[in-house]
Structure formats: structure tokens, C-alpha cells
Write a structure and sequence with these properties.
3 strands, mainly alpha, three-stranded antiparallel β-sheet
């Protein structure tokens, strides 16, 4: 994975989880924490991604500020509620595999708090 691709994946990951530590990101992407620091600084400077870096043992990490999302990789709450209602209505008509897939889709497109 190249630098640009890694930075894009870091951004996608942060938008999904909303907070991560440098060591977590370093482990996830197989690079050093110093490389992650450079990546985060580049995301902030070049792409104006609203990230906040906090130091501290308990609340330290990289936070995505506000409702920023790199792309619309998440559904709105009303969309997820509708999809869940539809799943409930048709669950008896779907196979176990189809129900599991629909549940997975709902989970993937739910923004974590």
C-alpha cells in the first residue's frame, strides 16, 4: 500500500470510528507511529480534514471533529430505521444468509458515536 492509499484508508477509518490512537493506527496499517503522525498532519494541512489530536493517557488520540465525513459512507438515521423496518417485515421471506447480509449492510452504514 502506497502513502496516498494509506492516507485515504486512514481517513476512511477515522470517519467510521471517529477516534483512534496513533499506536492503533500504526498497528492497523503496519507502519510506525511517526509515519502515522506525518499522515495525520498531511491530512490536516493538505486536505483540510478537521482532526483534533489530544495528548493523554485516557482521552488521548485523534478525533474527527463534528460530523465530518470524507464521503457519504454512512446512512442517515431515518434511512437506517427504514431499512431495519423493511428487514423486520420481510425477514420470514429471506434466507438466513440474506438476513445476515442485510444486517451486515445496516451495521456497515451505521456511523458509530
Amino acid at each position: 500500500m502506497g502513502t496516498a492509499e494509506r492516507r485515504l484508508e486512514i481517513l476512511k477509518y477515522l470517519c467510521k470510528v471517529r477516534k483512534a490512537t496513533m499506536p492503533q493506527l500504526a498497528g492497523l496499517f503496519g507502519v510506525s507511529t511517526r509515519t502515522i503522525q506525518r499522515d495525520i498532519l498531511e491530512l490536516q494541512a493538505a486536505f483540510h480534514v478537521p482532526l483534533q489530536i489530544r495528548c493523554g493517557k485516557y482521552d488521548g488520540g485523534i478525533y474527527v471533529i463534528g460530523n465530518y465525513s470524507f464521503d457519504r459512507a454512512y446512512m442517515h438515521d431515518d434511512e437506517l430505521i427504514l431499512l431495519s423496518k423493511i428487514q423486520e417485515l420481510v425477514k420470514d421471506q429471506l434466507t438466513d444468509k440474506e438476513n445476515a447480509l442485510l444486517s451486515q449492510i445496516i451495521k456497515i452504514y451505521t456511523k458509530t458515536a
